[in-house]
UniProtKB/TrEMBL annotation:
The keyword Thylakoid does not apply. SUPFAM superfamilies: lambda repressor-like DNA-binding domains, Periplasmic binding protein-like I. Pfam families: LacI, Peripla_BP_3. This is LacI family transcriptional regulator. GO terms for molecular function: DNA-binding transcription factor activity; transcription cis-regulatory region binding. The keyword Protein transport does not apply. PROSITE patterns: HTH_LACI_1, HTH_LACI_2. Residues 9-63 form the HTH lacI-type domain. It comes from the Bacteria. Keywords: DNA-binding, Transcription, Transcription regulation. It comes from Actinomadura bangladeshensis.
């Protein structure tokens, strides 16, 4: 009887056509060393002729691998988790692996429960996604499989963490403003307790110091990550220093509020004051008037980078330390030359 075209080719059929046992065919397809070279060549040729696609679960059982990775997050509802997850899924999909997603919602008890569940499902490795680009306690002592931290740095230097390069992103913003001829640059940002806020301020200050320029306003204006704070801080800055000609804001929400305040004060953007944000959060960046120049964290690529490092660790190439993932400058009308 002729096999129906829609029916998948089985390992048994490959073995029969190649004249070997199912066990030998499996060893040949999985590059096991205890198979004669001519036998392996024959099995591979038959598999290619029949367009044989090995079942992922079966391969996992043979290799001792589940072909799954756990992704543990604390903020699935936030704006950072989804793009990182997409990048992780894309990279793991290229390696024919899948993701089991767990949201701890910032609860330590829930987090431990999720870890136990993932280990019971025999995941090959784990990606721990931070809810902020900050240092967090290592989980490695509780987890017997490789772990990579994404958008959050483990406090154990023996772990591998992939974090956003906020210092470098701020340098991109500052150099862009200087290239436009802006010299009275002020900085409005979020809570000082966030490392991202401190790093972005540090990157700006380093560029201004190298150019021999002071920070307008004297020091960064730390506050909430909100439009309201952007409006309030802008009014205070302009009252204290009417000569400010550029605002670098620590988030797009803050920058959106800053532009509102500048309009209320009769300042033209970008002619009188150029404004640049951070995050490339499109709901703010593209709806701002004018559209907002910003620094994109490139979170999908960050997630893909974390996944590739985990795959490498599963293949025996384990790295430690911190990988700083660069952002990119997105120029829109809020910093266009006047």
């Amino acid at each position: 009887m002729t096999r129906r075209p829609s029916a998948p080719v089985t390992l048994t059929e490959v073995a029969r056509r190649a004249g070997v046992s199912v066990a030998t065919a499996s060893k040949a397809l999985n590059a096991r060393p205890d198979v004669a070279p001519q036998t392996r060549t024959r099995v591979l040729a038959v598999a290619e002729e029949l367009s044989f696609q090995p079942n992922a679960l079966a391969r996992g059982l043979l290799s001792g691998s589940s072909r799954t990775v756990g992704l543990l997050t604390d903020e699935l509802a936030g704006r950072f988790a989804i793009p990182v997850l997409l990048g992780v899924e894309n990279a793991l999909g290229d390696g024919e692996m899948s993701v089991l997603l767990c949201d701890a919602r910032g609860d330590a008890v829930r987090r431990r429960q999720h870890i136990r569940t993932l280990l019971a499902r025999q995941v090959d490795g784990l990606i721990v996604l931070g809810d902020r680009n900050d240092v967090r306690a290592s989980l490695a002592g509780d987890i017997p499989v490789p772990v990579v931290y994404a958008y959050g740095q483990s406090d154990d230097p023996g772990d591998l963490s992939v974090v956003a390069d906020d210092v470098g992103g701020a340098r991109l913003a500052a150099e862009h403003l200087l290239a436009l001829g802006r010299r009275r640059i002020a900085h409005i940002t979020g809570e000082e307790g966030y490392r991202a806020a401190r790093d972005r301020a540090a990157g700006l200050l380093a560029v201004l110091d190298a150019a021999g320029l002071p920070l307008a306003g004297g020091r960064p204006s730390y506050g909430a990550w909100s439009q309201r704070w952007g409006r309030q801080a802008t009014r205070m800055l302009l009252a204290a220093d009417p000569g400010v000609d550029a605002l670098f804001c620590g988030s797009d929400q803050i920058a959106y509020g800053a532009i509102d305040a500048l309009h209320d004060l009769g300042r033209r953007v970008p002619d009188d004051v150029a404004v640049i944000g951070y995050d490339n959060w499109e709901i703010f960046a593209t709806e701002s008037r004018p559209p907002l120049s910003t620094v994109d964290l490139d979170l999908e690529r960050l997630g893909a980078t974390a996944a590739r490092h985990l795959i490498a660790a599963l293949e025996g190439e384990r790295r430690t330390g911190v990988v700083r993932h660069p952002g990119r400058l997105v120029v829109r009308d809020s910093t266009a030359p006047g």
